[in-house]
Amino acid sequence: MNVKTIISLIVLGLALFAASLSVYTLPETRQAIVLQFGNPVRTHVEPGLKFKAPWQNVVLLDSRVLNLDVPPEEVTTSDQKRLVVDAFARFQITDALKLYQRVFNENGARDFLSTPIRSQLRETLGKQTFTTLLSAERGSLMEQIRTGANRAARDLGVELVDVRIKRAELPKANSDAIYRRMQTEREQEAREIRAEGEEEKLRIRAEADKQRTVMLARAEENSQKVRGDGDAQAVKIFADAFQRDEEFFGFYRSMQAYRKALR
């Protein structure tokens, strides 16, 4: 192999290497910014095979809808209820070049967007009552927050697609105080219910005792009446029998007396 062939192979290798540095593939889920010595020169949004100079490099940004977890924010409602609001948002990069110039990447966008979203949460929810936050109006409030935060988001080159509240709860100190108050109220209600039950039990027992006494008195009265009627009939029967045969019943009475005496 002569020197000319070697040089040709080296040149071909360098050409292939330069060609590999000049071509890249852009996926459907990405958008690209071509940088030359750190300065952006153009952007690519459509997927496919793309070309650049070998000394240029490429930064890829996501073109899909991305999630953003907003740090919990304490909000005081118009009726002076303190709430810890935990929200999340979804956003999409609409201007990759603007975003790169401001915050470089998606994580920088998340850090930037958290501030206006939290500010809108405080401003919008602070004008509402606690009851409103639990009503059907909550959806319109989320739309107001999204619209307000989008003004800052557009300056960043992104669009807020949605803002939602994951949960809104009282601070732990307030929750503990409310729990203790609820426990005290439930215990008080339980004592009242037990007292009412005891009162009802005594009333029913007194009524039952009263009815029992009346029933026993009536039964005793009826028994005395029946006994009296029986004694009267017995006396009458003996009297009628005695009048029919006085001698026989005199003898009968004597036999009874003897029997008692013999005992």
CATH superfamily of the domain at 66-169: Band 7 domain
> What fold name stands as the CATH topology of the domain at 66-169?
Tetrahydropterin Synthase, Chain A
The helix fraction, in percent, is 55-70%
* Shape estimate: rod-shaped
Distance linking N and C termini: 162 Å
Query: Which sheet architecture does the biggest sheet show?
Result: 4 strands, antiparallel
CATH architecture of the domain at 66-169: 2-Layer Sandwich
Q: Which consecutive residue ranges, at least 5 long each, have pLDDT under 50?
A: none
CATH class of the domain at 66-169: Alpha Beta
Average pLDDT score: 86
Number of strands: 9
Walk me through what this model shows.
With 263 residues, this protein is of the alpha+beta class. Among the domains are: 43 residues; 104 residues, Tetrahydropterin Synthase, Chain A (2-Layer Sandwich), CATH 3.30.479. It has seven helices and nine strands; from the N terminus they run H-E-E-E-E-E-E-E-E-H-H-H-H-E-H-H. A hairpin with a 2-residue loop joins strand 2 and strand 3. The longest helix has 73 residues. The termini are far apart. The model has no long low-confidence stretch (mean pLDDT 86).
